[in-house]
Amino acid sequence: MTYLKIFSALLVSTPLFGTPSDAQGITPPAIGSPVLERAEKPAAPAGMAREIDWDELLPPDARSRFAAGPPPATHDYLGEGGMAAQQVMDFSINNTLDGANIKIPGFIVPLDIGKDGLVSEFFLVPYFGACIHVPPPPPNQLIYVRMSKGIALDSVFEAYWITGRMRTTKHTTRLGASAYQLDGSKVEVYKY
Question: In sequence order, what E strands does 24-142 have?
Answer without folding.
Answer: 50-51, 101-113, 119-125
